[in-house]
Write a structure and sequence with these properties.
Elements: E1 2-7, E2 13-18, H1 20-42, H2 47-52, H3 64-89, H4 93-103, H5 109-116, H6 120-140
Antiparallel strand pairs: 1-2
Helix pairs in contact: 5-6
Length: 141
């Protein structure tokens, strides 16, 4: 007969007297459980450890292709804005002022005509001329 201790429901050690065969089976099961726990702890890495080590986790919701396309669109837009600014610098001051009133102040052609004391047809003709000049300037670049 051998005395072994086990923990009861309260977590207290209780000594129990068992046969040698029962003690051997109990120890073998305890070893298996300990080995399983140890292997699980040893071979398991938490996600936080991976992040702390400086590695990024893949985000399943992010779409690499759409991110790349968005970046390309922004680059193209920035290049087009740069070309437009260069073309705008080649316009006359009156043409630049007209474009400013149309697109920044959101004035209608009738409002611009009234403010400048011209007919709406004259402003329409001016705006069409500005558009065609900008188109030519942008095609050159």
């Amino acid at each position: 007969m051998v005395k072994i201790y086990v923990k009861n429901a309260n977590g207290q050690k209780v000594y129990v007297e068992v046969t040698d065969e029962q003690a051997k089976v109990y120890r073998d099961e305890c070893r298996k459980e300990w080995r399983t726990d140890w292997n699980e702890r040893y071979h398991t890495t938490s996600l936080q450890e991976i992040v702390d080590a400086g590695h990024d986790m893949a985000d399943e919701q992010s779409d690499i292709e759409s991110i790349f396309e968005e970046k390309e669109r922004k680059e193209q837009t920035n290049a087009m804005i740069k070309k437009l600014k260069e073309a705008m610098s080649e316009l006359t001051p009156i043409q630049r002022r007209t474009i400013y009133k149309l697109f920044v102040k959101n004035m209608s052609q009738a409002e611009i005509a009234k403010e400048e004391g011209l007919s709406k047809a004259a402003i329409t003709y001016r705006v069409n001329g500005i558009y065609s000049r900008l188109k030519k300037l942008l095609e050159k670049k």
